[in-house]
Write a structure and sequence with these properties.
The chain has four helices and six strands. The longest helix is centred in the N-terminal third of the chain and has 24 residues. The strands form two sheets. Strands 1, 2, 3 and 4 form a four-stranded antiparallel sheet that branches. The protein is of the alpha+beta class. Helices cover about 40% and strands about 20% of the residues. It has two domains: about 120 residues, Creatine Amidinohydrolase; about 70 residues, no CATH class. Strand 5 and strand 6 form a beta hairpin.
Length: about 190
């Protein structure tokens, strides 16, 4: 069930999201050949804690037999999502997706970015361009009168028009007091 948020709740989510954005902007500077994913995790945690926030991912989900052990997800090259930071060293030509979640005043913020590590191949650069274009196609479809299917269809159309396929096993999601809330927003679907 979708939980409608008050203006105050949206503002709290916005403040959490600003911290996420600050961490992701930092990643643009920190991601480089020779850096480990554990180092990136530590840098992210330092920013989050400095802002008096809590990393959403560490220990998620609460009470789980195998909670997530890190502050961010760091997925390199063909790793799809939820990579665990550790001793792996970034290499020239890699691409890395960093997913960051923050809790501030009881509300979550969550976003991800995919970045090049140094100089990347033309194929990897094209993948980054098509996926970024898909993000903007989805944003353009998120307007009054449209439905989530319009967003999903716009993303899928852009990705497939670029010669790629969308992942169907994972979706976007709502957020608020919980990390994952309704609605689920797949990256594929029909308009409407």
């Amino acid at each position: 069930m979708i939980t409608l948020k008050s203006a105050e709740e949206i503002n709290k989510m916005r403040r959490a999201a600003r911290i996420v954005a600050e961490v992701l902007e930092g990643m643009r500077e920190w991601v480089a050949p020779g850096v480990t994913t554990a180092e990136l995790d530590g840098l992210a945690e330092a920013v989050i804690r400095k802002r008096n926030a809590i990393p959403s991912f560490k220990g998620y989900p609460p009470g789980s037999a195998r909670p997530f052990p890190a502050n961010v997800c760091a997925s390199i090259n063909a790793e799809l999502v939820h990579g665990i930071p550790g001793p792996r060293v970034l290499q020239e030509g890699d691409i890395i997706s960093i997913d960051v979640g923050v809790i501030l005043d009881g509300y979550h913020g969550d976003a991800a970015i995919t970045l090049p590590v140094g100089q990347i191949s033309p194929e990897a650069q094209r993948l980054l361009e098509v996926t970024e274009g898909a993000l903007y196609a989805g944003i353009a479809a998120a307007r009054v009168g449209n439905r989530s299917g319009d967003i999903s269809a716009a993303v899928q159309s852009h990705v497939e028009g670029g010669g790629y396929n969308v992942v169907r096993e994972y979706t976007g999601h709502g957020i608020g007091r919980q990390m994952h809330e309704d609605p689920q927003v797949p990256n594929y679907g029909s308009p409407g």
